[in-house]
Design goal:
The chain is an alpha/beta fold. The chain has a single domain, classed as 3-Layer(aba) Sandwich (Rossmann fold). It contains seven helices and five strands, in the order ααβαβαββαβαα. Strands 3-2-1-4-5 form a five-stranded parallel beta sheet. Helix 4 links the parallel strand 2 and strand 3. Helix 2 packs parallel to helix 3.
Length: 148
């Protein structure tokens, strides 16, 4: 299923981040002790909801997303926003304390994206993924409510 990311970006301007979304970010901040020296890479970070939570901890955040509509929204989070895809992250090796995929990996060639995440993650850092398979997505209410 091809997703119209520009249309999806418009829809995000009418939604607030869920409590569950913010709780996942807070848990990562606490467990990894993220702070001013930390770099978080939010792959497919969309409008920057997670980025804002990570920035509030003092961490530096890079949102990588292919959608210009998402860049505009993510830019308000205080993160460094760049165009790109998870399969080819525009970052050096071993730089990230956390590489974060939240409901974005199923839009990518996941083996390539996870390989890239491991490449940019520093030794001792973590890659965290919340996703669903394409078949699950197509059968889910998400696809009915957000068919773009």
């Amino acid at each position: 299923m091809k997703v119209d990311l520009e249309r999806l970006a418009e829809g995000y301007s009418h939604r607030q981040p869920s409590k569950a979304l913010l709780a996942r970010a807070a848990r990562a901040i606490s467990e990894l002790q993220l702070g001013p020296a930390s770099l978080v890479v939010d792959v497919g970070g969309g409008p920057g909801a997670h980025a804002a939570a990570f920035r509030a901890s003092g961490a530096r955040v890079s949102v990588v997303d292919p959608s210009p509509g998402m860049w505009e929204r993510a830019g308000t989070s205080g993160a460094w926003v760049t165009g790109g895809r998870g399969e080819s992250l525009p970052l050096r090796d071993d730089v990230a304390d956390l590489v974060w995929f939240h409901l974005s990996l199923h839009h990518m060639k996941w083996i390539d994206a996870v390989t890239e995440a491991v490449r940019v993650c520093r030794p001792g850092g973590e890659v965290r993924i919340w996703t669903m398979g394409a078949a699950h997505f197509e059968r889910s209410l998400m696809a009915q409510w957000f068919p773009s």
